[in-house]
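Good morning C.,

I know you're traveling, so I'll keep this short. The sequence:
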Amino acid sequence: MGKRVQPGSRKLPATLLSVPLCLGLLAGCASYHPAPLPSIAELKVLPGLPAGKDLSLNDVAALAVRNDPGLIAARQQHDVAAADVFSAGLPPDPSINAGFDALISGPGSVPSISAGFSQDLGALITYRVDRQAAQAGLAQVDASILWQEWQVASQAEQLAVAIWTDRQSASSLSRQVAALNGVNVAVAQQIAGANQTLADGSASLAALAGEQAALDTAQQNAAHDLASLDALLGLSPGVDIKLAAPATAPPAAGTVASAIASLPDRRPDLIALQDGYAQADARLRGAILSQFLPISLGATGGRDTTNVFSAGPQITLTLPLFNRNRGAIASATASRAQLAAQYRASLASALSDAEALAASIALLQTQTDSAEAAATQAEQTEQAASRAYAAGEITSTAFANLASAEADREASAISLRGQLQTAEISLATLLGLGLPRFAGAHEEASVT
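The tokens, ready to paste straight into the viewer:
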């Protein structure tokens, strides 16, 4: 008579016991969620500014860094690089295997079963250099994003200077066009009354045509630069921006020399190259360590058809006899050498550009001072000529010539002042003035 099973003591089948385990493992797995792209661009009208506020250069730069669509997209690179750091710190998953052989014939008495477990140890060997490479990559991305932000801020400031210069030029030319229009009306009346000939009015007509063409060009330049600034700020096209008078100043000679000396420690693009070199160096060390990979350790066990059970450890080791990972090592060595050369070239270019721009600013300052002094003198002369023309003491030709000369002098002074301010902004950008020295992953490797 068979053994009776007591109530409540019945065991569940092994397949049912494995179901909760499988569900638990699946619960920790990632799942897919769609993220559709937008169908239209999201542009702003005005990004939270007080009504009627005139924007300084710092205001424009801050808005550009916050709202520029290109920067918003570039900042997503940080999350990608951070994910690489996270991935580099994860151990590989273990592997399991199982087998079953049904007994068909022969002296055996039971089916054979086998099972095994193995763990890849290669990740443990290269863990440190993999983490260093990923962290250097993250630091490189962050430094590159900072440099891009720095350049966008500089570009916004330069556009603001260009718009201000265009508007100043247009305002000056508008005054000249209005004055010459008045002269031409008066000359036309004199010609109609046979008091002057057509030759007498040719000078004022030619001056008016020249000033009107210059005014049209200045207005077109202002509209173009405003459209570029709107795009940089992520604004809808045509949004007007009220600007305060640009305030820039050349850095002192001692500041320039100090900034040039510390340029490799502060300029983000150079720091990004150093971090890239550190990443390449870590990858080279990883390629050298990988000569002996893969390496795995595990255990196997099972039962044969004669009902004999066995178990034991298992190790897999690659012998570096033929391949020895030489291709990857050569590629990593060449990449590191290329990045070192790129860094040296970028550093030399940055230093020479900064020194050349500092010298150019000194020349522009001298030329601007001379042009502004000449413009002031020409304005006084033009005002005296206007009074003399109104009193009938000089001809329309003489007044038109003097008015054109004053317009040319003022246009030259406005243009040179804009060039000087743009150069000062560019120098501050090249020198990284305002950026603190910060350490990165590159300080763990030295460029030789």
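Safe travels,
E.
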